[in-house]
């Protein structure tokens, strides 16, 4: 398990606290964020990624191809990297020099650090970030939704790789659209209901 000494808590009045959260969420911004890794990644161009857990296989192939492009040239990717499509992107990015902000839907405290995270953390390519207190030790549907909202607020632009009609991700997209933040989806028939512009390579 992680040593708590590796975790740095950013309060909302700290210089490194993401201005995007305060600007987008206002009074609803988390009062603090637990972090581990390179805080400078919070001040780089970012692209958020969310995808429903149940996505067509062709969506997974598409995001894999995009991840290959992002692996060496691209913005810092921000995501929970939890759904199969998001995990596919993370697996590709961890093998290259790309910078990543990973937002689990649970507390960082007492979270077991995966071996594949150690080298990217040491190289300054990875930042772990969570607004959840220590008692949230397991991801739930509710914490995943809160996390995806955080990802969307944190990122400069958001790619919704897939969202099931009337699902939680689709409803979240409606809220994010009201923020005036750039929103994209993939060119796939299952995403037609979102009515979003298509992301071909990168924004």
Mind explaining what this structure looks like?
This protein is of the alpha/beta class. Helix content is 31%, strand content 18%. The chain is built from six helices and eight strands. The chain has an eight-stranded mixed beta sheet with strand order 1-2-6-5-4-3-7-8, with helices on both faces. Helix 2 packs parallel to helix 3 and helix 5 packs parallel to helix 6. The chain starts with 7 loop residues before the first strand and ends in an 18-residue tail after the last strand. The model has no long low-confidence stretch (mean pLDDT 91).
Layout: helices, strands, pairs:
Blueprint: E1 8-11, H1 19-25, E2 32-37, E3 46-51, H2 57-70, E4 76-79, H3 84-93, E5 100-102, H4 115-122, E6 126-130, H5 141-154, E7 157-162, H6 168-177, E8 183-185
Parallel strand pairs: 3-4, 3-7, 4-5, 5-6, 7-8
Antiparallel strand pairs: 1-2, 2-6
């Amino acid at each position: 398990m992680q040593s708590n000494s590796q975790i740095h808590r950013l309060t909302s009045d700290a210089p490194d606290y993401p201005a995007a959260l305060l600007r987008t969420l206002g009074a609803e911004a988390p009062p603090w964020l637990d972090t581990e890794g390179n805080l400078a990644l919070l001040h780089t161009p970012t692209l958020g990624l969310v995808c429903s857990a149940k996505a067509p296989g062709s969506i997974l192939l598409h995001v894999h191809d995009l991840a290959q492009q992002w692996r060496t040239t691209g913005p810092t990717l921000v995501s929970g990297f939890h759904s199969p499509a998001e995990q596919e992107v993370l697996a590709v990015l961890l093998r290259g020099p790309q910078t990543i902000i990973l937002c689990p839907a649970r507390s960082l405290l007492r979270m077991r650090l995966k071996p594949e995270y150690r080298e990217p953390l040491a190289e300054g390519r990875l930042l772990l970030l969570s607004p959840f207190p220590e008692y949230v030790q397991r991801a739930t549907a509710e914490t995943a939704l809160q996390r995806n909202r955080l990802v969307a607020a944190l990122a400069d632009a958001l790619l919704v790789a897939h969202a099931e009609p009337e699902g939680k991700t689709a409803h979240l997209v409606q809220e994010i659209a009201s923020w005036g933040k750039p929103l994209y989806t993939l060119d796939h028939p299952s995403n037609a209901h979102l009515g979003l512009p298509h992301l071909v390579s990168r924004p």
